[in-house]
Design brief:
The complex is a heterotetramer of chains A (about 280), B (about 325), C (about 350) and D (about 350).
Chain A lengths: L1 H10 L3 H18 L1 H4 L30 H7 L1 H29 L1 H16 L2 H11 L5 H11 L2 H15 L2 H8 L4 H9 L4 H24 L10 H10 L9 H28 L2 H6 L1
Chain C lengths: L8 E14 L2 E14 L3 E5 L6 H8 L7 E12 L2 E4 L5 H7 L4 E4 L13 H11 L5 H14 L4 H6 L7 H13 L5 E5 L7 H18 L2 E6 L2 H7 L2 E6 L2 E7 H6 L4 H9 L38 H5 L5 E4 L2 E3 L4 H7 L3 H7 L1
Helix pairs in contact in C: 4-6, 6-7
Chain D lengths: L17 H7 L1 H26 L4 H13 L3 H11 L8 H13 L14 H36 L4 H15 L2 H15 L5 H4 L13 H38 L2 H8 L4 H39 L4 H11 L2 H29 L6
Helix pairs in contact in D: 2-14, 3-4, 6-7, 6-10, 6-12, 6-13, 6-14, 7-10, 8-10, 8-12, 10-12, 11-12, 12-13, 12-14, 13-14
Classes of the chains: A mainly alpha (about 280), B alpha/beta (about 325), C alpha/beta (about 350), D mainly alpha (about 350).
């Protein structure tokens, strides 16, 4: 009971961060649980084009008279899955390569850093734009993999620098003197001191993945498939929804969904910083 | 000093340590350093920053492998020995760091810090046993009642308390040799003495030997009165011998300069001290160590042609001290 | 506080109280501190980390961080028959007052200079801020001060701070501090982080300058040996209060406050045989909620109920020897010996 | 530890050969590394581009069929007439040929706009991207630094909180969404900007010249892209500058500068401003690359004729030489930006001068 209350106090310690957390939870629930409650409206209704929000159509209707709200509910899953997968992939690569680079040193280090340097030089978005045509991205997992595989270098460098400085810290030296083993040193001494950094960067990697995937879909470089916010955005755009007063809800709904989700993620990072800091954990 | 029969515990033989500072340049931080410490003995390394005392400490503790030369533990060269011997050495020698704020992992509680080595090396068979041993360790380092400290994170402790946890951690594997690298210099004077007394007590009770590294000769004198002091300058030992001799009758001009330069917490003594005047205030860079005796550009007794030619070797001086100075050599010859 | 002597003073501090806001509450860093700095004398403030000595130093020249404030008290500055309260100076007046009248030389000169400007530029802008317009004239004066601190002006003035060694930077800072020949200088830990031989050269330079230029000097240091070497009088601070002020001889050889006595017994010396040292039990108090009565009572072997309830004030216990302790006579009688017994018990 | 450091390296060893000395030259080494990187990028993109499904002919055929209702046969004939490229020679031969031409400064000719040299097309589009991105970066960097410093000086004030919140919000939202919102609200809903008139990079019939009318015109057309870039990047600079300023304000030399009685303005500029902005210059380079690379989205939304647009249309038509050319140009821009940032950093900070 007491620990529950402490956890709650810790979570609410940073107001902005807590709101971010609530936002993230909201979007996750909406994207994954929502579709079971809100059926997707696919019926064209010529008499109901561009209706304003009402009790039946919470966010109004689109260019074919379909409910926008149901599309928003159904359109989150792909975006979230890609963001999460891509974030995990790039962060994992970065943590593994960064640590390896720092701990192995020598030739391995040189090779990884040279590779990172080259990948950083390649203009990311244009490369993605070309790759988008190379492999057909109707496969969410593949999209996530490509996004993740291209976005590791910056974080790898940062992780390497962190590990290098942590490795020289006196408590790590003491652990070596105590012969606690490499596994203990990496998992118990070095990693816990980078956890907040890694978690925050995971979130940043997710936001970058959202930026790229929605952007690619929006430009029409990823073949349309299924329903997601990016596709909605692209359709709204190509149907000229920006130019009419009454199509405002059509174009703005996906924009707002993406923007609010990004904002929630970014705000959430503030809380992460504190969750992993023992100084704060013990003072609340 | 009744350490006649005491066994030699740890020794460095002609140790050289070089670090790469850039693609091309290496800097020689230690140059031909040799010393040995017997069981239960205290050897104090003193010198100014950059003289190589911390590097010597890390080499003694097995945290750095020397570029050349040998480190021997109970007579065995540890870097060529088999795994079992190295492990014995690794556990037999522990280190206490200077900065009590950097030497404890901020994400671990005192209990985690102290029980990890106990469990890893099967000194405690299970968590409960480890818990009991942690309590004992905390009592040993005067953190009483231990229950108050065991659940704390390092940031919840004062500097002195943290340093005691560091010492307790070093004791988990029951070492025979402790490297204390400026272990008290960051603490306030009012708690410094109690830490020194704790280290002394460990030596009396457990027979721990010390390599005590400090820049403060007064602390060295207090802690190592029954032991020896080695004075280092630019990567070399310039003088080594029993503490009272070094403090009261220093042979090397550098040691004399240090002793005369140190202000003391005694107005009369400090104001009436004889000063040694150096010829230069600048400390040479390790990238560009002077030829011959590296102290010669600053030495008040500098003799051209002698001091800037050959590097002086350590040799026995009159009072049981070993000193690396050409002039002392000559005096002896003349005497 | 009765003015026993009528010698001219440079600085008179009365009931100074400084606090700053921390997350946990108000930190009472300096509590009702009063003292007088005589003209030409060196007064050393000693005490351990967190005793408020650095805050005191910063408040004297009104350089406290924004979270801190002088809550009450006067800092009267006196020079050439003029006197005013530093607490009341406006920002503009302060700017003129600082460095010209009152220079502060900080600890860790490692970082006292703007890393992106050459040393000469930093001298020039300082002089210009105080009315100097002639570069050649300034150059002459700088060369003169550099000779005093044994620096080569040609080489040093052209250099950037990072190109100088720690000892050199400290000497450059001293030269900069004395450039405008201020009547009052404050040194905060001037030799910390310097090597022993460099430290010695800095101490010698300071002593020489002091005798040549006769400014008043406030020295703030945790290093008792530095105070022993340079100070005329020594003031001991504990938990934000001044607990003892005495001549350097009295402070070291006849301390009347148990804390001063304890500090002196905790520091090893070089000369003579090895003496036994004692430590003071416990740890310094929390300045957010300091102990009642005398702040030192939880660590003090002389403490009685009176100490726990009533705060002692600074009184002139012996001629020119002020102490804030209910039992100073007992300390005087046994020479602070009880500090030692307690540890052994 | 050391005294004044020697101005030059220690005496060069006699054994070092001429080649070794060149290798030791920092600048030369960097140039060599940059050339190597460019080569890698060219090679990589060369093959990726050609591995894309649909070749230029098919893309054209599809386009003719979709947009103009041509039959497949008609379209095929039409396409064959336009393209006399040899897509059948081996990829390797094409690569060798391309590299050989590149070494002569020849980027090839466009497939689609037949006969137009790629270099000419890039010369037409690139200036607009450089102009819009450059101006935006200049504005957001300087403004961000100023606002960041103000926030640091007025820490925890209402102004600080408001600016911090705005900064985080605008840097969290993808720039193309911000651009879209500008179009929708400022352009369509509230009709503040006549967005149809503002399309393109300059008004039709406008001749590039150093006249007030021209300058006004190009700024007018670049206004919305610039606004978008500035809004979405300024937050990062503000927050970075704020934290950097806060840590600089805690440095000893600031306190000493105050103790020296220096005028406040001098302290703010030469002491706080200069030192606090130093670390931001390394970020500047990275962000130039990022913005130029991502310009496609913004240029697409605002119909602005920059390299981003060129890239998009060349991707859609599979115009290999143009795609390659754009990649090359963007890569070079990123590398040059890095050089520039390092140079400025070195100029501002004597500690890292070499």
């Amino acid at each position: 009971m007491e620990s529950l209350r402490r956890t709650f106090r810790l979570l609410t310690y940073n107001k902005v961060g807590f709101i971010g957390l609530l936002g993230v939870i909201f979007f996750v629930l909406m994207a994954f649980v929502g579709p079971y409650f809100v059926p997707l409206d696919t019926k064209t209704k010529v008499d109901k084009i561009y209706e304003p929000p009402s009790k039946t159509f919470w966010l109004g209707t689109d260019s074919e008279g379909r409910d926008i709200f149901s599309q928003i509910v159904h359109g989150g899953k792909d975006v979230l899955v890609v963001a999460f997968l891509a974030g995990i992939i790039s962060t994992t690569i970065a943590v593994v390569l960064g640590s390896l680079s720092a701990l192995a040193g020598g030739g391995v280090d040189g090779l990884i850093m040279a590779l990172a340097d080259i990948v950083l030089t390649i203009p990311q978005f244009p490369l993605l734009a070309v790759l988008a045509g190379l492999v057909k991205f109707n496969n969410v997992t593949l999209l996530a993999v490509i996004l993740g595989v291209l976005s590791w270098p910056a974080l790898t460098r940062a992780i390497r620098a962190q590990v290098l400085s942590l490795r020289e810290r006196e408590f790590v030296e003491a652990a070596r003197a105590l012969d606690l083993g490499t596994k203990h040193i990496i998992l118990k001494e070095i990693l816990p001191n980078m956890m907040s950094y890694i978690a925050i960067n995971l979130i940043f990697a997710m936001t970058a993945a959202i930026y790229a995937q929605v952007g690619l879909v929006f430009l029409g470089l990823v073949p349309f498939s299924g329903h997601n916010w990016g596709v909605m955005l692209s359709l709204a755009w190509t149907r000229g929804a920006i130019f009419f007063k009454d199509s405002l809800w059509y174009i703005m709904s996906p924009v707002a969904a993406i923007a609010l989700f990004q904002l929630s993620l970014i705000s959430f990072t503030r809380l992460l910083e504190e969750i992993f800091n023992p100084r704060l954990r013990t003072s609340v | 000093m009744s350490t006649q029969e005491a066994q030699e515990l740890l020794s460095l033989h002609h140790v050289v340590m070089e670090f790469k500072v850039s693609r091309r340049a290496t800097v020689r931080v230690l140059d031909d350093v040799s010393f040995s410490v017997k069981e239960g003995e205290i050897l104090c390394l003193v010198g100014e920053s950059g003289c190589g005392k911390t590097t010597s400490g890390k080499i003694a503790a097995g945290l750095l492998q020397p570029t050349s030369g040998e480190v021997r533990f109970r007579g065995q060269n540890v870097w060529t020995a088999d795994k079992a011997t190295f492990r014995q050495y690794r556990r037999g020698v522990q280190i206490i760091h200077q900065d009590p704020y950097a030497s404890l992992n901020p994400t671990q509680r005192v209990e985690d810090i102290l029980s990890a080595p106990l469990l890893r090396h099967k000194i405690a068979r299970n968590r409960r046993e480890a818990h009991q041993q942690v309590l004992d360790l905390l009592r040993t380092v005067d953190l009483t009642p231990p229950e108050d400290f065991i659940k704390k994170y390092p940031h919840q402790l004062s500097g002195g308390q943290r340093q005691r946890v560091s010492i307790a951690r070093a004791l988990t594997l029951r070492p025979q040799f402790l490297v204390a690298d400026e272990a008290v210099s960051m603490l306030d004077v009012s708690i410094r003495v109690s830490l020194l007394q704790l280290l002394e007590r460990l030596r009396d009770q457990m027979g721990v030997a010390y390599l005590f590294i400090t820049h403060d000769l007064a602390v060295a004198k207090y802690f190592a009165w029954e032991g020896r002091i080695a004075v280092m300058y630019l990567g070399r030992i310039v003088e080594i011998g029993p503490t009272p001799q070094i403090i009261n009758n220093p042979q090397h001009p550098y040691t004399r300069a240090l002793l005369s330069a140190l202000p003391e917490a005694d107005p009369k003594a400090t104001r009436s001290k004889q000063r040694v005047h150096l010829r230069s205030l600048d400390v040479p860079s390790l990238l560009n160590v002077p030829r011959g005796c590296s102290f010669h550009p600053r030495c008040p007794l500098f003799e051209e042609g002698l001091c800037d030619g050959k590097v002086p070797e350590l040799h026995a001086a009159s009072n049981g001290v070993q000193v690396a100075c050409h002039l002392n050599e000559n005096e002896k010859v003349a005497a | 506080m009765a003015e026993a002597t009528q010698t001219p003073y440079t600085l008179k501090v009365e009931n100074l109280r400084v606090s700053y806001q921390a997350e946990r509450g108000k930190v009472k860093a300096v509590r009702d501190v009063s003292f007088t700095l005589q003209k030409g004398e060196t007064l050393a403030f000693i005490g351990e980390s967190g005793c408020g000595k650095t805050t005191l130093g910063l408040s004297l020249i009104r350089l406290l961080p924004t979270t801190a404030a002088i809550e009450q008290g006067k800092i009267i500055y006196h020079h050439n028959g003029e006197e005013f309260d530093i607490v009341n100076l406006s920002e503009k007046q302060l700017r003129r007052f600082r460095w010209r009248e009152f220079a502060m030389i900080f600890q860790g000169a490692q970082n006292a200079f703007n890393p992106v400007l050459r040393i000469w530029d930093q001298f020039w802008e300082t002089a210009r801020a105080h009315g100097e317009t002639n570069k050649r004239h300034l150059r002459e004066r700088v060369e003169e001060t550099f000779r005093l601190v044994q620096l080569d002006p040609d080489r040093v003035l052209r250099a950037y701070p990072h190109q100088l060694s720690g000892g050199m930077r400290q000497r450059v800072l001293i030269a900069l501090g004395l450039l405008l020949k201020p009547p009052l200088v404050l040194l905060d830990e001037p030799t910390t982080a310097l090597d022993i031989l460099t430290q010695r050269s800095v101490i010698d330079v300071l002593r020489d300058l002091k005798s040549q230029m006769s400014f008043s000097l406030i020295l703030i240091s945790h290093d008792l040996s530095l105070a022993a070497e340079l100070a005329d009088r020594v003031a001991t601070m504990y938990a934000g209060t001044l607990v003892e002020i005495a001549t350097v001889w009295d402070a070291y050889y006849r301390p009347l406050h148990p804390y001063t006595a304890g500090l002196i017994r905790a520091v090893p010396t070089l000369s003579g045989e090895r003496q036994d040292l004692v430590s003071i039990p416990g740890s310094p108090p929390d300045l957010i909620s300091p102990p009642t009565g005398c702040a030192f009572h939880p660590r003090c072997p002389y403490a009685t109920d009176q100490c726990r309830q009533n705060t002692p004030t600074l009184i002139e216990a012996e001629p020119n020897h002020m102490v804030a302790c209910w039992h100073w006579d007992e300390v005087a009688a046994d020479g602070g010996a009880r500090m030692k017994e307690q540890v052994e018990a | 530890m050391s005294t004044v450091q020697p101005a030059q390296e220690e005496a060069p060893q006699k054994t070092s050969s001429w080649l070794q000395r060149i290798w030791r030259n920092y600048m030369l080494r960097r140039v060599a590394a940059a050339l190597f990187k460019i080569w890698i990028v060219i090679t990589l993109t060369f093959f990726i581009v050609r591995l894309m499904p649909t070749n230029p002919i098919d893309a054209y055929v599809n386009e003719l069929m979709d947009q103009y209702g041509f039959s497949y046969e008609e379209a095929k004939d039409q396409a064959a007439a336009l393209f006399n490229i040899d897509l059948d020679s081996s990829l390797w031969d094409q690569y060798v040929q391309y590299m050989a031409n590149l070494l002569h400064g020849d980027l090839g000719t466009s497939y689609r706009s037949k006969g137009t040299p790629v270099i000419k097309m890039i010369a037409k589009f690139l200036p607009w991207t450089l102009f819009s991105v450059g101006v935006s970066l200049l504005i957001s960097f300087t403004l961000g630094i100023l606002l960041g410093m103000i926030m640091a000086y007025r820490r925890e004030s209402l102004l600080d909180h408001t600016l911090s919140a705005l900064a985080s919000i605008f840097s969290a939202i993808p720039n193309y969404l911000v651009g879209m919102m500008i179009l929708v609200f400022l352009g369509v809903q509230w009709k503040i900007f006549p967005i149809t008139k503002m399309r393109g990079s300059m008004s039709p019939g406008m001749k590039p010249a150093f006249t007030w009318a021209f300058i006004k015109d190009i700024f007018y057309h670049a206004l919305l892209p610039i606004l978008t870039y500035v809004l979405t990047t300024i937050g990062t600079w503000m927050l970075a500058m704020k934290s950097s300023t806060i840590s600089t304000l805690g440095e000893d030399y600031i306190t000493v500068a105050k103790a020296r009685g220096l005028p406040e303005r001098r302290i703010v500029t030469a002491y706080v401003g200069r030192n606090a902005s130093l670390p931001l210059f390394t970020q500047l380079a990275i962000s130039i690359g990022f913005i130029v690379g991502g310009s496609a989205l913004i240029e697409f939304i605002f119909v602005y004729q920059g390299v981003g647009q060129l890239l998009l249309s060349s991707i859609n038509t599979r115009d290999y030489p143009v795609m390659q050319g754009v990649f090359l140009v963007i890569t070079i821009a990123v590398i040059l930006a890095n050089f520039l940032a390092d140079f400025v950093y070195g100029w501002l900070d004597p500690r890292i001068r070499i």
